[in-house]
Amino acid sequence: MDSGPKSNHSPTFLRHYTYDPPPPKSTGRRRVTRLLLWSTLLFGLLAGSLALSWLIALPDVGLLTQTNPVSTALMDARHTQAKDRGRVSERQWTWVPLSRISPHLRRAVVAAEDASFFTHEGFDWEGIKEAAKYNLEAGELKRGGSTITQQLAKNLYLSSERSLFRKAREALITRSLEQHLTKKRILELYLNVAEWGQGVYGAEAAARHHFEKSADELTPDEAAWLAAILPSPRRYDPLRKTTFLTRRHERILRLIDRESAPATAVSNE
Prior knowledge:
Blueprint: H1 25-57, H2 73-84, E1 92-93, H3 103-113, H4 125-138, H5 148-157, H6 164-180, H7 183-193, E2 195-197, E3 200-201, H8 203-211, H9 220-229, H10 243-258, H11 261-265
Parallel strand pairs: 1-3
Antiparallel strand pairs: 2-3
């Protein structure tokens, strides 16, 4: 016999609950780190693909060693602009070899646009530094510090937009031009495709348009005027001898007289 009192309640079964603590903070940090690593890797792959596409799409500047361009990106852009405005685009352009361009013009252009042209490898780092300092003091982009080779790269192949992508592409093309072409050939190309007025391209057309003579007949004074208008050729077409342009012309004449080394470098061979 049971000596204790009987319970009136049914047996109670205890239910065991499990408790999952939150993941430690270190695990969350690891997930964030992995996410950043994957994001960086993806960005690197995209950037690498873009850089590779730039390299693949670069123009074959080696062709310029033997052939002259039949048009340039700048000429095509001017034609499109005129067409969009309902105007007729007339192009004055006659290709001539360097030997048929006045040595006075060759010296004037080098002195005015790129004094270290024959010594640098496409980029004038001192000029770039001085331009950056000037722009910083002025509070706006007024100077670019571009060399003749950089200007040639832009004229031949690039648009006029201002972006880091275009500047990167310009740098690659500039380097390629310097690697494949001689300085004499680069100067010949530049003088033949440079813009010298509304629809006026190249030294021969510029000489005939502004002075009614051929490029090989230009005097030192006339050559200095043509070199003076190069930064803004459309503004000074027809040639308007403003105070600014006159001062620039006089400065170029002084540079030509002072610097004899470029004269020897660009003389006829």
